[in-house]
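Q: What does the assembled structure look like for these inputs?
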Amino acid sequence: MNKRNRACETGLIKSLAIAASLALIPASQASAGVSDKDILNDAKTTGDVVSYGMGTQGQRYSTLTKINDKNVSKLVPAFSFSFGGEKQRGQEAQPLVANGKIFVTASYSRVYAMDSKTGEEIWQYDHRLPEGILPCCDVVNRGGALYENLFIFGTLDAKLVALDQDTGKVVWKEKIDDFKAGYSSTAAPMIVKGKVITGVSGGEFGIIGRVEARDAKTGKLVWVRPTVEGHMGMLNGKDNGISGKTNATWPGDLWKTGGAATWAGGTYDPQVDLIFYGTGNPAPWNAHLRPGDNLYSTSTVAIDPDTGKIKWHYQFTPNDGWDYDGVNETVSFNSGGKKLAGHADRNGFFYVLDRTNGKLVNAFPFVNQIDWAKGVDLKTGRPIETGVRAGDPAKSADGKKGSQIFVAPSFLGGKNWMPMAYSQITGLFYVPSNEWGMDLWNEPVTYKKGAAYLGAGFTIKPLNDDYIGALRAFDPITGKKVWEVKNKAPLWGGVMATAGNLVFTGTPEGYLKAFDAKTGKELWKFQTGSGVVGCPITWEEDGEQFIAVPSGWGGAVPLWGGDVAKSVKYLNQGGSLWVFKLAK
Amino acid sequence: MNKIKFFLALICLFYFSIGNTADLEKIIEKGFIEFAVYENFPPYSYKGDDGRVKGIDVDIGKAIANELGVQAGFRLFLADESVGDDLRNMVWKGHYLAGAPADVMMHVPYDAGFANENDKVAFLQPYYKELIAFAINTYRVRSAMNLEVFTKETIGVETASLADAYLLGAYNGGLRENVKHYSSILDAAKAMVDKDISAIMGNRGELEYTLGQYDHDFVITKLPTPGLTIDGWELGPAVNASNVKLAERLNEIVGELKTSGKIEAIFSSYGISYKTTDSSQMIIKANQLSATK
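A:
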């Protein structure tokens, strides 16, 4: 009781002091502002988290050791913050921390700013969504970007909104594209050299992926780089060369509607000065109709941040016929004096690339079963396909269900959007993976917008009775699996590694867990009350280390039925932010 | 004992208030019935220049409401990836963002196999049969007996439509280079008027309506389509299968509107040739009937 009163008192005194100091300076200078330098140093500075990926390289690694394998068992909640309302669904965000505030986005395009030590709300922003919007893949948002006094994030109706960090008021708002044409924005934007970098999310039909750079202060478009061959890029309002070579890897005019959505965000490495952006699957879904590699679908493209030109690309699944989006993050790391990048693809292979030129250095499976390819040829960089592809529905003579194949991984991937982590101390990648396959068949007749259509059918099936998810530690150089921890439900949340020999991740069953980074031994867990599908972060403030993670089940998994539903059907939705620190 | 009865009554009340959100009595009592229709889908449902909702499906909806003696409201919605998804969003479950379902959805395929996969839906008797057709610019192509002409001439399709998937695969991909993609039949029609393409393959009703706006030498016809597994399908209204009374009453009304010629008159007012349907039975799962009794 006494203790609590004292805390109130000091809080009061502190806020009085702040109010007094605020009175002396103009409101616009109330926050120190997040600079380009702060963003480039984010992975090294422990007092803040100012970028998605905890550093633009996307390692999700913190050098903090105050919380470590010896004392993590004493981790207790500092506070929990409810997102409120009835919108309890799919909290996939990574929070950000700067200047004593924690910023977090929530589903349905909402943003909250709160005091990073007390959880007291400073402001909240509810983006007004238009009537009749039907986003394809749930209502998630994966986070924002900080720049100077702005918090910038994308919305379900494909807008980019910049809010004042102190007040939550809109400073600028730009339309990315038309939501009625199937476009949306759910990924966290990234700041590179004063520009805000975004992609596009959206439905499968007729959209074209692209990466865009805007002046982060004003929202003014600087460059556009389409991720489908044949489309013209733009720099400062002028044509800037087409992507690739028209019709080199696409038949007819299919490149005009080629897909390759850039829906999961990107990373940036200042050492090679390149943006790495992943791309989705090509359209139409029937691969037989688009012979060719269909560039730059299912690839990582490396883009010059100044000119918006593609410097190199690496394609994971040429002529994709399994819906293996290549959007997963490409994480920069150095090893043996080499500048490398790691990428765990939907298709089940972990790729190590030379990030100076996109050449393949190593590739190995990170899941137990891969049916579509035997391996990846390290000389050519191409997959060695097994021939397990769905038949051509156009060739179905009787109009009945076409030939059915079973293939692992499922289209939800050996790993989906949820970002992995890389520890600079262990040199290991920590990959949130899932073991599932799918029955895939062609339906000669299904219906779309009141008309007959040739569709594909699929049913996702777990490969094991006792688990789908598995957090795995891999040595990227040897390809050796160092440890794994199985989880009954599919893993759908981000991972974080720290120098305290710890790895954190959440589970749909509601736990945030901490593991020994070297052995995978579970050292701590806490039940947050709803599934954890967000990304944990850590920072230090007034001598204490904090850990934060959003909680709230949702995302794509509950939308897909089949046998997977059994492992998730008792999970309740939610919406809150949990923050932890060591008990005193 | 009394307490238990009270709770039972409460539970029943709760159950029925959820289970019968769109039942016939409620609709008559409210004097209002809501139809879900596809957005931006001329000539079936679209916003006119004056901002009002128009179209064949809308007029049929108004005629149905008129027979019921209630006002009709229309909810324009964007098509999801399949009609199965649309039925979930608009008929039996609702969408987590777009809210509760409407009372009726229009322009729903009437097909026993499809109905079997969507057993929470009552498929009322169809009011129209849509056909796959070709619109040909006679200035470019004098006469086409088959698709071979499109190894040399270009043909437009709506992206991700049946015509798109069919033509890309037809003749072992031999027509693929000449298939041109448009976001809608309307855009394809403009391209044909501008002589960018020589033909369009698509739904007959949409072709007749969009090309009817232009004074040009076009012919709308049927061509042999080897390997195409379906070249026509029936369309009707659909309601939640738990609302049996509503389904039965609307099914009757659609039958009356068909026999009285009102539906054909609506089609001809949009300049569309009407293809009637023989089916008059609604498709509803037997277990749904027993579940509501």
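Helices of chain A lie at 2-24, 36-40, 564-568.
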